[in-house]
Each structure stands twice: as C-alpha cells, then as structure tokens.
C-alpha cells in the first residue's frame, strides 16, 4: 500500500508574543504540525500492519529552509521518502492554492492508496486542505479518523463526530484526516535522526508540476489580524489558602456572581 | 438576482444561518434560499420557510442517506446552481467543516471556516475567524465570485417566526451514492453537557494529579452552581468526555464567570474563555499564562485552595 502523508510546517505558536495587539512573528521558530505527526504515526502503523507498503511525506512551502527540520523529523519517525514542493510563489497562497499544489504533486507521484492529513493545521486550523484535495482527485474523504484499519480493497475508519462515533468503509484511494486521539506520535531515536538525512528526498517547483504562479494566487484577502482586546483586572489574591479562598469569595460576592 | 443559500444538517443551526442570511440579503439585494435533505427535509423546510427563507430546496434522494460528504457537497453545488446562489452559509459543525471546503472546491469558491462573525463592510461580507492558533482574529475578505462560509454554531440568534411561508421546491438532483459507506453509528459516551449556554463554568486541567481528585472540582462546581469543563489535555487522559473541552477544538463559552483550576492557559484553551465576563485562576505556577487573562488570580495548590473555597461558599 502506498501511503502519502501531507505535512505542514507551522509557526511555534507558544513563542508568539503580542505587542499592541499585533503578533510579533520575527524570530519565531517553526515546528511540525501536531496533528500531522499523528497522521505520520498512523501511516507508519498501517504500513507495518499491512506489509509491503511505503510511506511518503509530502510538504508544500515557500522555502526549503522552512521545512528542513520538519522533513528530517518525520523521516526520522520512520517515513520512507519525502517530496518537497518549494516555490517562492507559495509565499502568498491560500488553502485552495496549497490543495491544488498537493493534488498536482500526488498526480506526479502517481501511485497513492491513502492520503493522510491532519484534521486542521496547528496554526490556521481551517481544515480546508484535505477536503479540497479529495475533491480535486475525485476520491472519497473521511474526516476526523480516530482508528484506521486496512482490509480488502478498502479502508475501515472509525471517526469522531459532534455527537456520535461513526464507522465508515471506503474504497481506495481515499483521503483521510485524523484527530489527536488516534495515537501518540513516536519520538525519533538519535540513531534514526542520523539516518534520516540519507532517505530519498525529491524537491519540485511549481513549474515541475505544470502549475504557474497564478494557479496558487490567494483569493482570500486578510484585512487585519490582531489579538483580541482583553481588559482584565489582574488582581492577585495573597496569603494562605484560607485567606485566598476568602478573598475570592468576597470578590465573587462583590461582582454579583454568588450570593444573589 | 443572486441568492444566498443556507444549509446545515442541524435544524437550529440552519435557522441561525437563515437569520443572518436574511439580514445580509436585505442589505445586498439578494434573495434567501435554503437546502434541506433526507427524511426530515419536509419538516425543516416548514421551519426554514417560517423564518424568512424565500425558497427551500428539498430532496429525499436515497443517495443522501447517511449524508456522505461527497454527495452532500454535490447536492449543494447543484442546488446553488439551480437557485443562482453565489454565497453559501454552512454551520461549522464537524460535518459542516469538512463539507464547506469540498463544496467550495466544486464551485471554484473561496472559503472561510470556523467563522465567528460576518459583517458587511463597504459592500463586502467580511468574515472573522481565529488565526495563529487563537492568538489573533483575522478578518478575511474572499475575492472569488462564489463564496462559502462555515459559521460556528450559536454565532447568530434564531429570529422569531414570521407570517407567510417560503416556497418549497423539489430540487432536481442527479446524484451517485457516496463512495464511503456508513457501517455503524453510536452515540458518544458521557452525559451531554451544553457549555455554550452555561452561566458559570469551572474548568479543570492537568493540575489534577489523579482522576479521582476531580471530585474536588465537581464539589466546587456544585457549590458555585457551575458546569464542569476541562482542557483538552485532561480530556485526552480520558478523565472527562470530549464534550467538556473548552477551546479551539471544543466549546467557545461566554459565561458570566469562568474559574480555571490547574489550567496552564495555552492559547488553544483560552480562545474558548476569552469572552467570559469574569475570569479567575488557581495555579501553582505564578508565571502560568492563564494569569494574564485573569481578573482574580490565586497562586496556590488546588488541593489546599479548593477545599477552603468550597467551605467558604457553603457558609454563604
Ligand atoms: C495572514 C496570513 C499569512 C499567511 N502567510 C503564509 C505564508 O507566507 N506561507 C504559507 O505557506 N502560508 C501562509 N498562510 C497560510 C496559508 O494560507 C495556509 O496556512 C495554508 O493555506 C494551509 O491552510 P491551513 O493552515 O488552514 O491548513 P488546514 O487545512 O487546517 O490543514 C489541514 C492539513 O492539511 C495539510 N496541509 C496544510 N498545509 C499544508 C502544506 N503547506 N503542506 C503540506 N500539507 C499541508 C496538513 O496535513 C494539515 O494537517 C498565511 C495565512 C494568513 C492568515
Ligand atoms: C490543534 C490543537 C487544538 C487544541 N485545542 C484545544 C482545546 O480546544 N482546548 C484545550 O484545552 N486545549 C487544546 N489544545 C491543547 C493545548 O495546547 C494544551 O496542551 C492544553 O490546553 C493544556 O492543558 P492543561 O492546561 O490542562 O495542561 P498543562 O499545560 O499541563 O497545565 C497544567 C497546569 O496545572 C498547574 N498545576 C500543577 N499542579 C497544580 C496544583 N496542585 N494546583 C494548581 N495548579 C497546578 C501547572 O502549573 C500547569 O500550569 C489544542 C492543541 C492543538 C495543537
């Protein structure tokens, strides 16, 4: 089985500082998408369960510097090959552009049985890329997978919806998106990190995929992107536990939360 | 005249969208259509028609059974074409959130998901959504002719029913059954809780060392008349159900009071509490980010502070 995992490199959001409501993005490190690592882990487990399978990781970015560590990390986790689509025109694309690029790359790769995504990226979390790729490829999609079993000519997926757990069966090829509860991604060993650099890695530009920059131009204009204003009192209640508890209860009385 | 088309598999959510669709349509000179699929389509059509929708396109095509996302997307694309709709509003439930981009791709449309407000600005509909993991709110303007917005449920109210009914149109659809078959479906475990409507919430996090210790949080919630909620970190342990998660992938709450106990305050959690009127936090770490959002902060051990709090509250 040929499994392709689509992996995004995100800003490390824990490191973002807000200054005058503006996010300060300078010198923020990148990190591999959290759910994307769950998707890689799911692919590795499927590969090992099915046998005679291959896991290819696929990523799209405006520069290869941005994705270098991500690719190293997922190859060290155990993916077999990597394909990078790198082009400066991707600097200002949107979800539709990323999806079009991924779909074209999948067509060039040629053989894919399962294409795995995160249910949302760790920064924008729009959840658009997987479903858009499924539509472009004209294949079934199953979102929010929490368990994946390969069998027969297809795949059996248990997924987590708002109010119920649903099990679906789909023929291959299929697009799946995963939720975090599906597994605990493995942490690569030092040895595997050393070996990761030697795994086959391809790098293609948009031209290599037959796409011109206009094909990935964004149709989503961001008018502003500011932190919400929060006006909080920041009153720290001092003393021992009993004193602090009394302080909070008094505050709640004063605010009209209790004792009404 | 172009139309706005609203759809959700959940009737209440569809009515919320109809409320906003009506308002936007009036301002933009657009009509309002809705789609309703499956065995309950006729009922939904009645409700939508009574809430200001001009035309409700219904279909009970057997291919729509199970609401496979590929089929629903195709059905909506065909309805959009029949209705002449250039703007589609969908509720951002899990189902809606995977449907909206697939539909958008069919329509060649731009799409914004998890929309928290739709505002008409200089003749364009501007959608707000959290970006950078919740650190910021981005205001997005789609430049495509067709637009798809997936809006968070409970963003808009439901209007009172109006006199007169919309027209019910049998949609002329040509559909193939979904490639993905539903094998089974079972309700999620755990008692249902509605955090969206809660007035007071005690949110518990991984500061609790053992599952059994959550009893302390429950006691405090009872004393405050509050619902118990949690972080994703805690729910991932399996200690509380997913429907109690607050944050980016859980409920976006608007209570009068939120008390965070043993919660670090990562942004993915705090986006779900930032609309609370009053926030208090109890955490052993004085540098925990939750304190930046707190009106009242207690640097302390929850195992000491909670029993004291319960005692004081009970004495009121
Ligand atoms: C103000 C602003 C500026 C931006 N600037 C840039 C920029 O300079 N460069 C840039 O790349 N993006 C930029 N973007 C974001 C870009 O539009 C989206 O990140 C991109 O379209 C993916 O969408 P998403 O993060 O919502 O992915 P989702 O649809 O939420 O992602 C779901 C899954 O799709 C897959 N996936 C998503 N993106 C990729 C990818 N790139 N490669 C491989 N797999 C992927 C992953 O499996 C992921 O888990 C910007 C966005 C904003 C709001
Ligand atoms: C895509 C994505 C979506 C996410 N969505 C959500 C979401 O919707 N909701 C959500 O909550 N998270 C979400 N997360 C996870 C989030 O990033 C954090 O991991 C999570 O919120 C942390 O949970 P926590 O505060 O319980 O745990 P921790 O971060 O481990 O914090 C525990 C806190 O307890 C304190 N503590 C320890 N002992 C005590 C004691 N005895 N008394 C008092 N305090 C004590 C510690 O100082 C610490 O601050 C998401 C993550 C991603 C990547």
How many structural domains in the coordinates of chain B? 2
Please report the first level of CATH classification, the CATH class of the largest domain in chain B: Alpha Beta
Q: What compounds sit in this structure?
A: flavin-adenine dinucleotide
How many runs of DSSP E, i.e. beta strands of chain B? 16
CATH structural architecture of the largest domain in chain A: 3-Layer(aba) Sandwich
CATH topology of the largest domain in chain B: Rossmann fold
β-strand amount of chain B: 25-35%
Give the distance, in angstroms, between the N- and C-terminal Cα atoms of chain A.
64 Å
Strand order of the largest sheet of chain A: 11-10-9-12-8-1-6-7-13
Fill in the CATH topology of the largest domain in chain A.
Answer: Rossmann fold
Gap between N and C termini of chain B: 62 Å
Order of secondary-structure elements of chain A: EEEEEHEHEHEHEEEEHEEEH
Number of discrete helical segments of chain A = 6
The two chains with the largest interface, and their residue counts, are: A-B, 80 and 84 residues
Radius of gyration of chain A: 22 Å
Walk across the major sheet of chain B and give the strand order: 5-9-4-1-2-3-10
Write the SSE topology.
The complex is a heterodimer of chains A (260) and B (316).
Chain A: E1 2-6, E2 9-11, E3 17-19, E4 22-24, E5 30-32, H1 34-50, E6 54-61, H2 64-77, E7 81-86, H3 95-109, E8 114-118, H4 129-137, E9 141-151, E10 154-160, E11 164-171, E12 174-178, H5 190-196, E13 201-204, E14 220-226, E15 235-236, H6 241-255
Parallel strand pairs in A: 1-6, 1-8, 6-7, 7-13, 8-12, 9-12
Antiparallel strand pairs in A: 2-5, 3-4, 9-10, 10-11
Chain B: E1 3-7, H1 11-28, E2 31-37, H2 41-49, E3 55-59, H3 69-83, E4 85-91, H4 94-107, E5 110-115, E6 117-121, E7 124-131, E8 136-142, E9 147-151, E10 167-170, E11 181-187, E12 200-204, H5 214-224, E13 227-230, H6 232-236, E14 257-261, H7 267-270, E15 278-283, E16 296-299, H8 302-314
Parallel strand pairs in B: 1-2, 1-4, 2-3, 3-10, 4-9, 5-9, 12-13, 12-14, 14-15, 15-16
Antiparallel strand pairs in B: 6-7, 7-8
Helix pairs in contact in B: 3-4, 5-8
The complex binds flavin-adenine dinucleotide (2 copies).
One flavin-adenine dinucleotide (FAD) binds at residues 6-8, 33, 35-36, 39, 59-62, 90-91, 93-95, 98, 117-118, 120-121, 123-130, 222, 225 of chain A.
